[in-house]
Amino acid sequence: MNKIFCKITEMINESISKYLPDVKPEDLEENGKIYYMNGKNGTEFDWYVNDKISDMMVFYNDKDNLGAVKLTVYDNGCVLIYVYGDKGNKLVQEIKTSIDINENEIFELAVILRNEADDKRVWDSDIEKINTDIVISDDIIIEYKSHEKYYKKMRMRKEMLGLGAYVSKKIIEEGWKVGYMSRDEAMHEGDSGWAFMAGNEDDDYVNDYRNIALCSIYEVCRLDPAVGKYIVNPVGTKMIRVSSSEFEIDNNDRKIYLEKR
């Protein structure tokens, strides 16, 4: 087994022993087998978008089948472990630690997992069933690195979700969907540059600071999911809503489609 997987196994078993002392092996699925959870996004997505390999899980052995331990290894060697008691219903410990590995070792493991799990359609499998004791060729590594460009927009969208935006209170408080959105240069760190309006505000409304709130892009997308696919558009973008789910570049030749949630 790959040495990183060996260390992961050691960390998980230590966590169970220390924080779940009353849990017996038979209380866990397959007596505590560790599963590589690549079935949701896949190894490449997690590596290039989330800066990690897919999560490792140990599950309780009952009808709810909730997690007992979740372990995440990031590309810089940092490790985050969550331990759950009460059959998975209660978080009992969060552990932040690290594995003594270099960047190339964790990258090569990601490549191996893509090839030996994802490419072979092995999803959410016991890690002992994944062949990680192999040497990956330079050609496969080059091919893996060449795929980073495919995830660029996804990564940008993820990073954008945590940034702030100026939002009309007609959207937040009155229930209107976004009707007009524009992106200017960011004014400070943490600012996306985006402003979102319902589209039925007059100048007096917009010029009164009490009518504008600062929200995260995540919150805007939660209120109006149709906005999400446009948030990586560049500075200078001005768009209007033209239907329940679509926006177009504002050329001042169409009326804004106004709609409430």
Q: Can you characterise this structure?
A:
The protein has 261 residues and is an alpha+beta fold. The chain is built from 8 helices and 12 strands. It has helices at residues 3-19, 43-50, 103-118, 138-146, 152-161, 169-172, 203-207, 217-223, and strands spanning 35-36, 56-59, 67-73, 78-85, 90-98, 125-126, 164-168, 180-183, 191-197, 212-216, 238-241, 247-249. Strands 5-4-3-2-1-6 form a 6-stranded antiparallel beta sheet, covered by helices on one side. It has a 6-stranded mixed beta sheet with strand order 10-7-9-8-11-12. β11 and β12 form a beta hairpin. The longest helix has 17 residues, at 3-19. The model has no long low-confidence stretch (mean pLDDT 96).
What order do the helices and strands come in, and which of them pair?
Layout: H1 3-19, E1 35-36, H2 43-50, E2 56-59, E3 67-73, E4 78-85, E5 90-98, H3 103-118, E6 125-126, H4 138-146, H5 152-161, E7 164-168, H6 169-172, E8 180-183, E9 191-197, H7 203-207, E10 212-216, H8 217-223, E11 238-241, E12 247-249
Parallel strand pairs: 7-9
Antiparallel strand pairs: 1-2, 1-6, 2-3, 3-4, 4-5, 7-10, 8-9, 8-11, 11-12
What attributes does this structure have?
alpha+beta, 261 residues, 23% strand, 6-stranded mixed beta sheet, 12 strands, 8 helices
- Number of DSSP E strands: 12
Radius of gyration: 23 Å
Q: Segments where pLDDT lies below 50 for 5+ residues?
A: none
Q: How would you sum up the major sheet?
A: 6 strands, antiparallel
- Give the overall average pLDDT: 96
C-alpha geometry: elongated
One letter per element, helices H and strands E, the order comes to HEHEEEEHEHHEHEEHEHEE
* Number of helical elements: 8
Strand order in the largest sheet:
5-4-3-2-1-6
* Terminal Cα span: 52 Å
Helix share bin: 25-40%
